[in-house]
Amino acid sequence: MKFKNLLITSLCAVLIILQSCNNPTASGSKGTSSNKQITATDSRGKIISLPHEAMRIVVLYNALVDDVYMLQAGDKIAGIPQQVYEMEDTYSFLSRLDSRIRNKSIPTPTFGGQSGNAESIVGLKPDLVLTFSTDEDNISQLENLGIPVFTFSSLNDEKILEELKNVGKLLGKQKRAEEITGYVSSEVKKMRASRETSPKKIYYAWSKGRIMSTSGKGSLIDMAITLSGAQNACPVPVEAPNISAETMYKWNPDLIILWNSKLSDVYSLKELAALPAVKNKQVFVMSPSFPYDPHTVKFMLFAKQLRHWCMPEYTQEMLDEDVKEAFEVMYGKKGLI
């Protein structure tokens, strides 16, 4: 009986060993699923790990939707912000890349504004959600539900490039990400090495008519202004200071740049009527805004548009040619703009 029990035990052990050798998930075996794990670090410094490249993603901010289409991963999108359909220039351009955008058939799991509906997001069964690091409530809710969230910060040029490369890994588009970031890095290097500089000071006003809200030293906009070769009129090292008309006169910018605002938002302000930039009609609207979104790698084009406004020698024709070339590289297609 003892011999029989020993024989049975030995046979079981052999079967377990054989099964382990043939099991693709066994530790140490080649081609294991653990070897297929894809990892990338997001803006929080958190390592996001997926068992395979993301196949269904929900994107909660417009700029990040743009990033996904640049990576040629639009087919993976399962949900987008409602604003993609509402912003005319964004909708018009992305409609040319995806018939689902054109037909407005991609779900929009948002309440309106940038507020995401966690229940609706979960219902779309994403294996990855893309959002900004400031979207703390959604991040916490979704991660508590076991949904991986990759966050962006877009703090500066280095972060934008790094974050695009990292999300490219998770989407199985690492080569595309390298192509885009390599090109943008090269263009930025040329701009910084250029002797084209201007003593002009630029005041940047926030969107939706918030003329007395600007971007200070160390901000993303400050980086783009500096890259253009001009100077940020705001000397305050604060991300988003609110100022008075008296402060505007004290800073005395040469140009005022508007984003998603109207010229009348400035020209109708009686308290700014005597400001030299206003009197000299040196107020410009970054419109259409889509080609110059500074929260994406197009911060480089934002800076080039500023350079054109500050330096007449960098002509409209030169800017148009640069934008055309950049779009061909960024989206991997010709004739988009």
UniProtKB/TrEMBL annotation:
Signal peptide (residue range): 1-26
Record-annotated Fe/B12 periplasmic-binding domain positions: 56-314
UniProtKB keywords: Signal
InterPro entries for the chain: ABC_Transporter_SBP, ABC_transptr_periplasmic_BD
Protein name: Iron ABC transporter substrate-binding protein
Organism: Chryseobacterium vrystaatense
